Amino acid sequence: MATRRLGAKKLRVLPGFRLTLGFTLFYLGLIVLIPLSAVFVKSSELSWAQFSHTVFSPQALAAYRLSFGASFFAAVVNAIFGLIVAWVLVRYNFLGKKLVDALVDLPFALPTAVAGITLATLYAPNGWIGQLFAPLGIKIAYTQLGIFVALTFIGLPFIVRTVQPVLEDFDPELEDAAASLGANRWQIFWRVIFPTLTPALLTGFALAFARALGEYGSVVFISSNIPMKTQIVPLLIMNELDGFQYAKATALAVVMLVVSFLLLLAVNVLQWWSNRYNTNNLA
Amino acid sequence: MTQKINTPNRMSEPPSVRLLLIGIALAFIALFLVLPLVSVFAEGLKQGLGFYFQSLRDPLTLSAIKLTLIAAGISVPLNCIFGVCAAWCIAKFDFRGKNILLTLIDLPFSISPVISGLIYVLVFGAQGWFGSWFFDHNIKIIFAVPGIVLATIFVTFPFVARELIPLMQAQGRTEEEAARVLGASGWQTFWRVTIPNIKWGLIYGVILCNARAMGEFGAVSVVSGHIQGQTNTIPLHVQILYESNNFAGAFAVASLLTFLALVTLVLKTWVEYKNTALRGTAFTPVPIGKRAV
To answer: With an 8 Å Cβ cutoff, are B39 and A117 in contact?
Structure first.
């Protein structure tokens, strides 16, 4: 009780609580919450039959499958290579290491439209990379493979940036202990280091996956946007919007929003798990 | 044998494995990052320097640059003020529902750009909530400049706040309290104690916020009417040039944005060098409240 009183008094030493909290809530409501609620209100105007007709149409189902599939494989590839990049950046020294470290964030800094036209040009049948695959009969741009390439590009930094700090904080004494007990290098990695990295790796995976699900700009140029074949969900929503089919676009947006909120929740749980993991290590 | 156990070698991967891993990492980075970067400039210069600069000096390009500067010029300061306010009340005071507030601030990050544009169409569009009111008063928001500004504010909403909140939480409130007890006014405390403490975090947030504001494509694409010379930002102009098969022109304009991205990375690295506490938090949307400080 006494501490509570003290806390209440403390609150008054610094000014501006009402002003800043008031402005924060006002701005949050105006910019984020009211517009976002419009999606749910608008979709509630649809009957269930109308809603499910849009949301479970064959075209929508194909788009979900492609969005989830391409995002999943892109995140898997990033998990493998991102882990290697993070490992190399933390553990080894080589020429240009700082440059590589700074460059990892490029997919975040580069506008998605630029990434989109660049990847589409590179992987087109006459592009620098595309022409290497064309003789083998493999088309990359304007196919599902191209969408996968774009989503891999966009998700690249997530794994590196979530794994890197955990690897930096890793206590080398644990490795020494394992080595002195006779474990070989491979066993140390799998049994000692990898379990510590798992929460961060999964967090990065979930973030990359979530980002890929919503991605539009880098995919729109490299995808031929053919319904049932190379149309991911954001492209489908854009198509409906271009045809002024706002109700349909909104219904699909609700599905996407629910999926993103679930992923956000998953990331929160993973972060909680990883923080607990780290405090356990310290104790 | 015993000597080996007594002095375990921490970096004990054999050199061949080390080289292999470095090789894989560098090949991956080269394929996915360096090659696209080089190709932007190569494609932009394909028809010569003359054409390159001509594309940049085109009146439609210039008007796109102007609109991008307007959108960033409005959204970055507003989100900056919001970021400071949010960080002040969250870091310096205790109240209920703080975690919910933190999650809500992060929300725009987890929403697809297409949906970010769509929500403003639903509110301000012709058939939207306030659409008819604005129509009656002859104010155009969707398919006009205000819609572009609003969408840009939305997608860059969390950037400054999410840099400042963990920073100010880590710094605590004792310094400000000491200033107040010694007789400083609220504003004096803020300008002389808080601002110098959060300076680098603020600059960092502004750099990231600006990069996204100038480069946003999906959300702006939904609310822009794609009217050349009027509602085209630089990324939208790139799209129009590319789709009209003016590839060299599209890449010339895209090289401007690429240059901006490179400047952003350099500035970001510089700020991280000045303030090591900020390292690694860039762009990665790990929830604010859950981030290890």
So the answer is: no
Which of A84, A99, A114, A205 has the most B C-beta neighbours within 10 Å, making it the best mutation to test the interface with B? Answer: A114
Average pLDDT over residues B2-12: 47
- Quote the CA–CA distance of B210 and B168 in Å, as a whole number: 21
CB-based contact B36 A122, cutoff 8 Å:
yes
- Please tell me the predicted confidence (pLDDT) of residue B246: 94
Q: Do A259 and A179 touch, CB atoms closer than 8 A? A: no
Q: What are phi and psi of A228, to 5 degrees?
A: 75, -15
Q: Which residue has the tokens 């995002």?
A: A71
pTM of the model: 0.90
C-alpha A27/C-alpha A13 separation (Å) is: 25
**Chain A residues with CB-CB distance to B260 below 8 A:** 111
CA–CA distance, A216 with B217 (Å, rounded to integer): 8
> Which chain B residues are closer than 8 Å to A271 by Cβ?
286-287, 290-291
Closest chain A residue to the Cα of B178, Cα to Cα = A13
List the structure tokens of B108: 């725009």
Tell me which chain A residues have a C-beta less than 8 angstroms from the C-beta of B257: 110-111, 113-114
Q: In whole numbers, what is the pLDDT of chain B averaged over residues? A: 88
Spatial CA neighbour of B235 closest among A105, A230, A220:
A220
Return the C-alpha torsion angle A39, A44, A46, A48, nearest 10: 120
In this structure, chain A runs to a length of 283
The two tokens of residue A23 are: 């402005």
Find, among B143, B155, B84, the residue nearest to B113 by Cα.
Answer: B155
Number of Cβ atoms within 10 Å of the Cβ of B202: 19
Q: From B50, B28, B31, select the one nearest B39 (Cα to Cα).
A: B31
The whole-angstrom separation of Cα B108 and Cα A260 is: 11
B205 contact A CB<8A: no
pLDDT tens for chain A, 283 residues long, are: 444 444 444 446 788 899 999 999 999 999 999 999 999 998 988 899 999 999 999 999 999 999 999 999 999 999 999 999 999 999 999 999 999 999 999 999 999 999 999 999 999 999 999 999 999 999 999 999 999 999 999 999 999 999 998 898 888 888 889 888 988 888 899 998 999 899 889 999 999 999 999 999 999 999 988 989 999 999 999 999 988 889 999 999 999 999 999 998 888 888 788 777 665 554 3
Q: What stretch of H or E contains B245?
A: none
- The two structure tokens encoding residue B185: 């006014």
Of B28, B95, B110, the CB nearest to A263: B110
- Closest to A117 (Cβ–Cβ): which among B123, B180, B254? B254
Q: At residue B207, what is the residue type? A: I
Cα–Cα dist A241/A250, whole Å: 9
Q: What is the ipTM of this complex?
A: 0.89
